Amino acid sequence: MTCVALILAVFYSLFGRPDWAHISPTLYFFFNAAFITAVWAASSDRASLLATPLLVGVGVCSYSLYLLHVPVKLVLSHLFGQLSGQPWFVIAVLFPAAIGTAVVSRRYIEQPVQLWVRKLITPARMVDERRPGITPTTGGR
Predict the structure, then answer these.
(1) Which of 31, 118, 111, 20 is closest to 64 using CA atoms?
(2) pTM of the full predicted structure?
(3) 81: alpha, beta or left, given left = phi > 0 and alpha = psi -120 to 50?
(4) For helices 62-80 and 53-60, what crossing angle results, to 10°?
C-alpha cells in the first residue's frame, strides 16, 4: 500500500498544480521528492533520523499541528501585518508558534479528551487505574 501511495505522490508531484504554493515547479518537485523519500525510508525502517525524539514529538503533535497551523498563521498575520509574509518571519516566528500551539493543544486538549473517551467506552470492571493492565476481577493472575 505504501508503494501505491508513493507512486501516486510521484505522479502528483510531476503533474500537480504547484501554483497555490507560489514556488517554482522545480522547487515543488524537489520538496515532494524529499517528502516521498522520507515516507519511503520511514515505512521501510531505513531512516533512524526520523526516530529522533524531536521528530517523534512533532509527529505525535502532527494532528494538532494540522488543525491549528492556519489559525496560528491568521492570528499572526493580523498581529504583524505585512511582516508576516516575510520568509524569515515564517521560519523564526510562525513555525515555532504553530508547533508550540500544537504541543500545548496535544497536552491539554487531545490527551485529556482521549483519556476521557477511553474511560467512557471501557467498562469500569476492566480498568484498574492504579495498576494498568491488571483487572480487579483477576487480581493480575
Answers:
(1) 111
(2) 0.57
(3) left
(4) 80
Query: What grid cell was written down for 89?
Result: 518571519
Q: What is the pLDDT of residues 121-141, one digit of tens each?
A: 887 655 555 555 555 555 444
- CA 48, 5, 71, 80: dihedral to nearest 10 degrees? 70
Tell me how far apart the alpha carbons of residues 83 and 99 are, in angstroms, rounded to a whole number. 20
| Alpha-carbon span 79 to 93, nearest angstrom | 12
Burial class (CB in 10 A: 0-12, 13-18, 19+), 110: middle
- Separation between Cα atoms, residue 76 and residue 122, nearest integer Å: 41
Nearest to 76 by CA among 61, 58, 89: 89
Mean pLDDT, all residues of the chain = 77
Among 24, 52, 26, which residue's Cα sits nearest to residue 38?
Answer: 52
Q: pLDDT, tens digit, for every residue of 9-62?
A: 666 666 655 555 566 667 777 777 787 777 777 777 666 766 788 878 888 888
| CB 73 within 8 Å of CB 96 | no
pLDDT tens digits along 63-76? 999 999 999 999 99
